[in-house]
Fold each of these.
Amino acid sequence: MKIDKLLTAGALSAGLMPLQAAAQDAQIWSYWGTGAEAAALEALVDVNNSENADTPIGTRTISGNSSEMRRAMQVSFLGGTPPAVYQSGFGMDLKSFLDAERIANIDSVIADVPGVAEMSSGIKRVVSFDGDMYAVPLNLHIISNVFYNTAIFDELGIEPPKTAEEFRAAAEKIDAAGYEVLGNAGGGSWTFYTAFPFLIEELGQDDLFAFTSGEIPFTDERVVTAFQEWTDTYVDNYMENWSGYSWADTAAQFAQGKVAMYQMGDWLSAYLADAGWTAGEQYDFFSAPGLDGAVVVQMDVLAKPSGLDEATSAVADAFLKTASGAEGQLAFNVKKGSVAANPESTDEGYSAYGELAYQQIQEATAADKVIPNPKFLFPTKLDEEIKNDTIAYAQDPSEEALMEMLEKLDAMRVELEDAGEFIKW
Amino acid sequence: MTTNSRGSLKREKTVTFAIFLALPLIFFLTAYVYAVGYTGWLSLHSWDGLSPHWDWVGMDNYQDLMGSSRFWHSLVNNLQWLVFYLICPTVLGLALAVLVDGKLKGEGIMKTLIFLPYIITPVAVAAVWRWIYMPADGLLTSALEGVGLGGLAQNWLGDAGIVNGALMFAALWSATGFAFLVFFSGLRSVPVETIEAARIDGASSWVIFWRVVLPQLWPSTVLVLGLFGIEAMRIFDLIWSMTNGGPARASEVLATQLYDVAFTTFQMGEASAIGIVQLLLAAALILPYIIYITSHVEEQSE
């Protein structure tokens, strides 16, 4: 009898061991490797591992960005050892994993988590395919706020502008006083980001999605008007030699009081905090003209690879529930300096700027006006062309150059549309 | 020695040679032949780097490249880099070597100062020069303003018209040290007797340099030109670190385009096609050099 029991126990142990080993090794892979980002992930993992002590998760940093993550994931798939959860981009990036049959449908895992159903439809739209969610929206960074130097505005008696017309009037005063009007940076997609408010104003939220789905030509009258308005309001007022600066270089110019306004992601507030500036004192911000309560956000999402073993899958599911919940999101976003995507999360512990951004996103969520960064909704090839063409155009803008750019981009749109490269968001 | 022991010695030698050759051969086959073959095969497919399936497209990727203005722009930039490398750091390195060679006080310090930039990693070189080239507070602009030449200050890395020149100047600072070191070593191996003989014959310094010294520096020149030629075709790190190929792709070369196509837009097949074209171009430029160096220079050393 004893021998039978021993044999049974041995057989069970042998059967369970691989599962336990897999579960113990279960990790989230991210490129949040340093500073506030690493602290944010650690805080989220701490919440998870106290809530789910039986299914803890470990972390692994993939140095670099989404490209390096993609390569690491590719290798892990080839080796049959994908992580439990990984940091992903939304939109096209996520869809490419789905097309390759590499991510799992997590709709049933997180659908019942309080607050998920109340997330803004714009956010859910870019992590969902055929009505099911494939990733957890974790953090939101507003990229449509214009930061301004309060001392310059006070000196010149300028009120934060609400419309493009008011913006141009303010710009005229700032320029006459000898300050650089509007910061911008070369490289990246910073220049294209600054065109979003004008596209949103002209197209509206639904047609913006149609535009990123390839259904509206770049030569559409409203798109042309948006780019013309962008040129008159922003491009003509960019600081001198902006294309030679990185975003942080321009932030330094802003912090030195040389530049009056700067439309940038809200990570600028962290940079300014390091420079000793406080929101509402040395600087403040206003929503870019024409947005009418809408906010454009950059966000990170978490996804679960397909084909995981049972134990790792259980760890992933538990972690994704925590990561989509109010408590997990609060822990993460307080540290990272972003705002929780789950509207049930509070603003407890946020910085002065974070509280204001939280309020802005809450109001936009209530009005269903949270718009994910359109850059990530275009086919990547087209997005790269837009990025480079807008930089080239903004360095030497003219009506002819604008039409030439839009016609070139539209030719590519048609080509990619024919090739079935667009996603209907 | 008997026939048997001679045969045994021959076998031992053969085994020894085989063992010594096996490692580099295996390394060459796996790290080079296999990798190039794999890339060539991938260049005939469409693949997003993630999907388990590759789609066969034949020569489409190459046809797309040939019809792409972006590709030709990158290629022209590579050729500009080739001309730059073959002339600027080579001539400057030679000039500095001649200048320093036994004619300056503090030769050791000079040698160190000139060679030091070459041993700094390109990413660090890029960081230094990004700061130097900053439009408003950069060292170069500040220096120009300091001497009343502020009007000459430019948007060094942000202006498509001058960005390549600015990058090349940074490369010049870094690469000259290598040419200097090779030429300096070459100068030290020129027999003093030949120079003295020319001097006794009444030759001027210029004639001595042109007719006596320079011909004897030919092996050094071939080495410098060959390695700089290779560098021009594979340059990546300095450009990527300083401009990412921008502004608006103005400073893009084949290597940065390859990286961007592969890891930003995930068109692995097209990126592989760029890699193969780059390899063929480099081979066309470098093979004559390798053939030459393996024949003439070895003969000269004998």
Amino acid sequence: MIGLFALLLGFPLIASQFQLDLANQVFLAVIGSLALMLLTGYAGQISLGHGGLLAAGAYTVAILSKDFGASFWVTIPASALSGALLGVIFGFPSLRLRGVYLAVSTLALHFIVIYLGTEYETHGSYDSGVIITPPVLLGYSLESPRAWYFMMLLFAVLAWLVAANLLRSKTGRAWRAIRANETVAEALGIGVSRYKLLAFVVTSSMTAVAGALFGYYRGFVSGEAFSIFIAIQYAAMIIIGGMGSLIGAVLGAVFVTAFPYFIEYLLFMLPGADQAANALFAVNYAAFGVVMIVFLIFEPGGFVGLWRRIANRWVTSAPNVVAVART
Amino acid sequence: MLQLLVNVIVLGAIYALIASGYVLIYRVSRVLNLAHGELMMLGAYLLLQTATSLAFGATGAVAFAALMSLLVGALVYVFLMRWMTGQAVLAAVLTTISFGIFLRGLSVLTWGSQHHYPGKLLSVPNVSFPIGASAFISGVSLAILAVTIVSYAALFGLLRFGRWGVRMRACGQNPLLAAQSGINLHTIYALAWAISTFTGALAGILVSLETGVSGSLALIGLKAFPAALVGGLDSLVGAMLGSLIVAAAEVAAIQYVSPLLADVIPFVILIVMLAFRPWGFFGTREELDRV
């Protein structure tokens, strides 16, 4: 544990700009995927609206810092608040709908949020997106990936702590009960509606904060950055990592974030790669689809499930990763 | 005004043709196919490929591409969705989404990201017919109307009177009992996927004759999904009504409010419907508890 922290803190000393940028993207993804894991992996509620929530956070930053000149200390809590508000809206259908219908309602809300964002862009005559100036903290302007690294790390660790502690509390137990069986949970005296809404609120505000950080980090907010593909990527993270495990959420975030770079690397090892460079995003899409399908069909438990199977077969004394993550 | 009405009916026919695919698969196998838009786009690309590499003439090329799509649909079930039978709802939906993403990547790799016009390649005449004093309808739009009407008539006939249609309904109602009475579930599901891809591809093919084909064609397919849900995910009659509602709202929004609304209005309708009557106008109510 201490070794891990030492590694995470020492990493900026040895890493290149590119590696730091990748690490920052991973941290952002970790916040979002931990949030989605709480909602889907523990409370059992499906959401395909993650892109919209990220966008909401980013737009909150854009609007507050552009139109009101608000500082980092105002915009981040404000984005958490707007995320929480959206969480109530996103969660409201969950009181009545389940499964596919719920997924579809969050998908629809995603489109509506993105529309409102682009509407703001056109009305504010930010034609192709809103430019955000780097935040100034204690007289120090956060610009380089190295400076951001520590900020992102801090937020990712905070997200982990929030998630782990919530799961250890009454709330986490209520969520698991709802996921296992709603009727039984209700009969046990758990306020199912309340805890479902709470799950959406917590998830949404965490995600919106990630979106706000993303907006600052990129320095640019545009509706096009939050396509439905983003929501699918987050769903992929929790599936590929392993449902119902926080470690799984982190592993999935690392995998999905690093995946396009890995594909790029592979592609350029092939002969005649120069032509393929134009088609890089297409190769990415196709490969991502295949990997998702392979996981869904052959290893629905994700990395954590894979590890558990290997551990059960070869090393009977290996610690159960899922059990560790759930404590 | 008359022109607006014509636009609503044509757009409604496009949505209805696509929506029938969502309904058929959902009704038979309780799977929501979110790759339907991409499969529809694939149909248009198949037409493009046929037009460039085979000398079939316009009618032949359209027929060939549509028949290929029938095959594609069956193959998608046999090689992909068969694995998802009996799996969790989320897993099945995500599989179709992943497959859609795969198709998007594949189509850009194969046909590039630029806009293609298979209609020009096949030299489909761009004629328009006057309706009344001030309205026009294009030849392709008339074809879309005709194909939609014929498709729906055929689907109704199949499901009500056809031997295979009755089997399909049986599988949708109770897969276990259907299998027990000797119906091969996999064959039925594959058939449903084939027909659904066929009608979806027909829509894609016909739309591409007029407006061309690129990645954005898949979005039309996704917008037809609210139409299917508003009518009721397991009802063909509902799909027609839902398509007209969504089309009317979309045309009205473009005309009177803002063209930017076009891509979002179907989803607004979807949300409103989910809030008040999630099972749609003609859907079965108990469906909701089963999913």
